[in-house]
TrEMBL record:
InterPro entries: ZIP, Zn/Fe_permease_fun/pln. The chain crosses the membrane at residues 57-76, 88-106, 126-145. GO terms for molecular function: zinc ion transmembrane transporter activity. The lineage of its organism: Eukaryota, Viridiplantae, Streptophyta, Embryophyta, Tracheophyta. Signal peptide: none annotated. It comes from the Eukaryota. Belongs to the ZIP transporter (TC 2.A.5) family. The keyword Ion transport applies. This is Fe(2+) transport protein 1. It comes from Zizania palustris (Northern wild rice). Pfam families: Zip.
Amino acid sequence: MGIVVHSVVIGLGMGASQNVCTIKPLVAALCFHQMFEGMGLGGCILQAEYGAKMKSVLVFFFSTTTPFGVALGLALTRVYRDNSPTALIVVGLLNAASAGLLHYMALVELLAADFMGPKLQGSVRLQLLCFLAVLLGAGGMSVMAKWA
């Protein structure tokens, strides 16, 4: 759900934006976020014990949420103002909710299962390497967020 809300908000912001300076960072964020979210979600979908129909539905929803957000943003360009207080509050609440859901899913659902597995629990060196990898990944995403 967090990925769906997040993708719609990014698409909405891109579709509603009229400024080239705003669109360029959104395209960069869209490319990186969708690529990494797609890889993570794809891995989870493959590991899940769903049937082919359910897997197809999940992939379809992930593939269509951002284009839906862009289309919605384009449709709302006449009534949507980037700097209006209502738009800023709504986008801020949606971003906060989707960020919280994404953090929860990443830390509790995905990483906890890997870190609590027998392979990592048996090796302190491997645990330290995995913690370092998580910190480097989070730092890299923070640098990209600052740049974008």
